[in-house]
Known about the structure:
Layout: E1 4-9, H1 11-32, E2 51-55, E3 61-65, E4 67-72, H2 81-84, H3 116-124, H4 127-131, H5 141-151, E5 168-171, H6 184-192, H7 195-210, E6 217-223, H8 228-242, E7 248-253, H9 263-282, E8 286-290, H10 311-325, H11 327-330, E9 343-344, H12 349-357, E10 367-371, E11 386-387, E12 402-408, H13 419-431, E13 438-444, E14 448-449, E15 463-464, E16 466-472, H14 477-490, H15 494-502, H16 507-524, H17 528-534
Parallel strand pairs: 1-4, 1-6, 4-5, 6-7, 7-8, 12-13
Antiparallel strand pairs: 2-3, 9-13, 10-11, 10-16, 12-16, 14-15
Helix pairs in contact: 1-10, 6-8, 9-14, 9-15, 9-16, 14-16
Amino acid sequence: MREIVTLQVGCFSNFIGSHFWNFQDELLGLAEEVDGDPVFKSPSLNLDTIYRYGETRQGYPTYTPRLVSIGFQGSLGSLSSADLSSYDIPSSRPSEIVTWTGEVSKVVAQPHKKNLFLQRLCEEGTSSYASGKGESSVMEDKQVTENLENSVHYWTDFSKAHYHHRSLHELHASWGTVQQFNNYGAGKQLLTSNTPEADDIIDRLRFFVEECDHMQGIQCVADDSGGFSGVAADLLEHIADEYPNNPVLLFSARNTERKPVTRAELVKRSLHDAVSFSMLSGLSSLTVPIGLPSLSSSKAAAFLGVDDAKPFHTSAVYAASIHSIGLPLRMEPPGPASNSCDVIGAIDLGQLVQMLSGQSWRNKVIILDGALPAPGLEGPLLSNLHPLTPETAAGIDDPRAVESLVIQGALISGRRPNLHEVESLIQKEYESYGSARFSHLALALCPLPVPLPFPSFFNEASSIPMAARLRSTAAILPFLRRRCDDLRRLGFAGSGAGILAEWGIARGEAEELAEAMATMTAELDPHPELSSESD
Length: 535
């Protein structure tokens, strides 16, 4: 077994993660349906890679994500640590030992009201739900979906996965300080000044890592805006020290944000972007920035009806692409007993890192493209993949480009082709580019399942074809240059130097960050002399 441990750090990252685990939970349910579509029953896709088996003291089996999730205190909504305390851990009776004889006052917060989806989940676990199916008391899927559009305030409002009690951690010290927890320095200082909190998070991570037999690496989805980027940097630094031989795939996530109004806000935002990216990318094997300024107006979401003001919407698009691009890591490797009719292109995380960053250059900042849903293969596919990474250059013909393309559930004129037919069509499309390009292709017959708690992008479709791609290419240069230039221009004089000092970043450390980004940019720049003249 080649396990992957997942980290989710921050509010938006947990929204993405909630959708991601819903996809996995849906796949598990579809695989167990007696009369279900056999395409969902393939043994070649192994969720044991990202899930773990457990057992309660009462002997009940459990199957939960190998996950550590970090968010604000109170960000679990109607879910609480108490809800997980009876799941996958021994039960115990309340202690009868009394250590206080004085008066006791009890303050109970008003619980968050469950929306229709969560109410339905609770009903499904009762015998009365099963006996009452078809009656007026049963909520229709459409009613639940419509309610979700306006009732999602927390990522748990649309989560249907079960979690291990060690998975979910709330940052207690950040309670009530959301507005102040808005920069890289706040996150770094929070863990640095709160050793018990840091120790608790590290112990949770160590629990999942140490039970792995042969861990292939760590997948991390971390907020790139606000203090959670600092929290993520602390965690990744610990991982680099304690598990130096395990690759880290980082999705640096950002939701749609309000544009800075004042000059001071612009300076702080620009410095945060530069520092956060430089720190996080320096601690990961591959960094994939995701989060367009306006997803709704992008080509990637042209047919989806995305509402940028709803994280429930935007996170769904990014989660779908992360799910698809990670399929090769969950495929069973080819062998005498493998079924190549269901999947093609199994690789592990180390191989993916080596392929995308270990070629003629040392680039490790990768572009994520998606096609949601993927078009039918009777027409072109590659031109219908659009970036979910911000600030990328279009129309770049880069002969050094390396990419990993994943297609699941492909259709040709409405029919489901075999994988070798799909492989042949895609290879011909690559050849039509006429430029030298190394690519890895992974295919799965299984389409992307559309679970009930998902935005109504696809009407009543239960599954869709999906394609996603990771690209190592010079098209990422605009993203890199802006952060490099902002740090050099703003970070060493005036208010910018003071901001970095407040975040605990000394001038020498800022110079090292700027130099590292300049080196990263130079690796990719085909015309460095022109860039230096423009600078």
